[in-house]
Amino acid sequence: MWRDYALLLLVSFFAFWFLLGKLGLIDPDEPFYALTAREMVESGDWLTPQIFGKPQFEKPIFYYWLAAGSFALFGESEFTGRLPTAIAATVMVLLTYIIGKGLFNRRTGLLAGLFMATGLELCIMGRLMLTDIPMTIFVSASLYCYWLALQRPEHRDKWIFWHLVLGGLAVLTKGPIGSLATLMATISFTIFAKQPFLLRGGRGFWWGLLAYAVIVIPWYTLMTVKYQWAFIDEFFIRDNFLRFIRAEHPANNTPWYYPGVFFVGSIPWLPGFVLGLRDLFQNVRNDAPRLFVKTWFLSNFLFLTAAASKLPSYGFYLFVPMALMIAYGVNRLITHGFRSKGEKWT
Fold this sequence. Notes:
Strands 1-2 form a two-stranded antiparallel sheet. Helix content is 72%, strand content 1%. The model has no long low-confidence stretch (mean pLDDT 93). It has 346 residues and is mainly α. It starts with a helix and ends with a helix. It has 16 helices and two strands. A hairpin with a 2-residue loop joins β1 and β2.
């Protein structure tokens, strides 16, 4: 098993770390995050994100802490600015391997991890200062903890606790979508799998809810008390609610936008993407792991498609369940061979 980790780390090095700081920061997002982190360090105010000396609330605080911490420890450069993302991308690859191995088997996990390290969009975003990869880690790990709580009832309290803790970190990284993503996936799986919904009491739930509150409430409360309507208007209304109902980039607001993003972002795994797409529409009600991945992907895909504002980075956290679907299909081919001439040609 150590060979799997060694291979994934080696591939991750070339995908995310090699020549990481050679390219200058790319407009508009990277300079925005870098300048906010710089001003956080220079001002000594590690609670209020600011740019050009004025508060800005486009994203919550957690990613700024990562970037500012990197600047404070190692100095300012393109490399240190992107260092938290490269670390997060590497962790994401290993996490995907662990999830795939736990849901299916070792080879499926390894294939899913390799996809996460080598897919086109993942290689690009793993080298940029963006909030999406840390959020993806927290959402994916939170959902896997929920799965473990279902599969291991004797340890249910422990896994529900961590499910909620990780969900809280996702909210502190990207906002309400951090909890919405996990709720949509768990509720849809509960309905279609006819499983008990685990977030309804128990020691692990109440301790987890307390930990969630400790993670989420202080910063949001502090910003609301300190900046009042300015924070509520910019963060909750303009950067969350209005982005859902109003297209920030009208040309992107089409039902085919995210299928196109996932298709192009899956290069060079396009044959696996096609097979995974075919499996997506199969009846897997009696296959709990596949149903879990399917409801995880579809519930959030429908939500993102319904949202008016669409960008490639918004759908990034769905590359993990997509990697699992692709890996499952490729592993099935390796194990059982082709089911049709169409599969063989693909």
